[in-house]
Amino acid sequence: MTLQTDDTLMQLKLAINRAIARQEKRWGYFQIRRLDDGSMGLDIPSLPQIRCVANLDRDIYKLYWGRAEKPAVYSRKKKKTITDPRTRQTQIQRVYEVMYQLDGRSSVQQINRIMAQTIRDRIADHVSAQADNELEPLVLMTEALS
Fold this sequence. Notes:
This protein has 2 helices and 7 strands; from the N terminus they run αββββββαβ. It has helices spanning 6-20, 106-126; strands at 31-34, 40-43, 50-55, 60-65, 73-83, 90-101, 138-144. Helix 1 (6-20) crosses helix 2 (106-126). The radius of gyration is 17 Å and the shape is elongated. The relative contact order is 0.15.
């Protein structure tokens, strides 16, 4: 499959966003359906299906290619405590990491990156500091080491 045209890339980005948001789409080039295990499946012609497992309330995402047991894209959340050396006040910062695997197939690599960007943007759009002693959350996207 070639992802060279802007139209195809835009359709793919929209389909990935819908799959992550758990919305079915049974028409068009990229179709999304609910799988037996409750996750969402994104069908991309000439490539294995992408299985999306998402907990939208906790910002936990895992996306798998075909029957793979290891996710190609996933998110993790950490909290770190930062102490200001001058005031000795501690502040908390939540850090969201979106990790994506490298792949030798250029189309799969490109799709992994698009999925990671979509998840990163989705998290960044709605997270904010929840308390006075909390710093603004940090949302990162990183290539995962195999």
